[in-house]
Amino acid sequence: MKNCYRISDPISIVLPLIFFFVLGCRKDDKSGMVTDADGNAYRSIEIGSQVWMDKNLKTTKYNDGSDIPYITDQTEWANLTTPGYCWYANYDVDNKATYGGLYNFYTINTGKLCPSGWHVPTTYEWETLTVYFGDVMYAGKALKEAGTAHWLQPNSATNSTGFTALPGGALFPSGFDGLTTSGYWWSKTANDSASAYLWMMFYQYDWCTYTNLNMGIGASVRCIKDP
User: Fold this and answer.
1) How far apart are CA 4 and CA 14, in angstroms?
2) What are phi and psi of 125, to 5 degrees?
3) What's the DSSP call for residue 19?
4) Strand ranges inside the chain, DSSP E
5) What phi-psi label fits residue 27: left (phi over 0), alpha (psi between -120 and 50 degrees) or beta?
6) If you count DSSP H runs as helices and E runs as strands, how many of each does the chain have, helices first?
7) Residue 215: phi, psi to the nearest 5?
8) How many Cβ atoms sit within 10 Å of the Cβ of residue 132?
């Protein structure tokens, strides 16, 4: 594992000023909202030169309307070399709504996972996001959801960006793991023919880190707007 550490009506005239100072680098994109092929809506947020979705992807369809294979059997998932997705612990009520889907890299490699005009970020685009904060050791602090509604204690995050990164865990060959303690997000950058890069955040740290793992891992996806 390689540590990167770079990780409408106004009520009064005062209210917009409060939003300006509290939200800081967070800004809504002019397009406002974007929907996936299932009709799930996401708000777009501007962070530096980039525009990101404010939630993890939870579509069950590609942007051409075709279905992504839904795989719930652990053995079948472990042997997949083709696209597949699931919900954490195969629980499609709270985990779907809160954390979004877990997708293997083969879904990302189709180039059709994010809505039209959006894409799964490259490793370089993840780096650009983390270094935007200057002292990159604290990128996770600005990106993670604040408090302990979802993250385990301690969590000193401020979520000053509105990115609201959540600890959705992942599906590994050994099974589901990491809910409440860690979040894993794919990049679309492959390492070799069998592995690709994921970015990770953890409940007890303010930094982010990345590593390359097997393409069959089930991890979260956060889409970024095309330049």
Assistant:
1) 40
2) -70, -35
3) H
4) 27-35, 41-47, 50-53, 85-86, 102-103, 118-119, 168-172, 175-179, 182-190, 195-202, 208-214, 224-225
5) beta
6) 6, 12
7) -60, -15
8) 18
Stretch (H or E) spanning 143? helix 139-143
Rounded Cα gap, residues 38 and 47, in angstroms: 26
Which is it for the CA torsion 22, 134, 47, 167, positive or negative?
negative
The pair of three-digit structure tokens given for residue 219, joined into one six-digit string: 């991890």
Residue with tokens 């979802």: 150
pLDDT digits (tens, 9 = 90+) for 151-191: 999 999 999 999 999 999 999 999 999 999 999 999 999 99
**Average of per-residue pLDDT values in the chain:** 87
CB atoms closer than 10 angstroms to residue 99: 22
In sequence order, the 6+-apart residues with CB closer than 8 A to the CB of 148 are 155
Q: Which residues contact 74 (CB under 8 A, 6 or more apart)?
A: 175
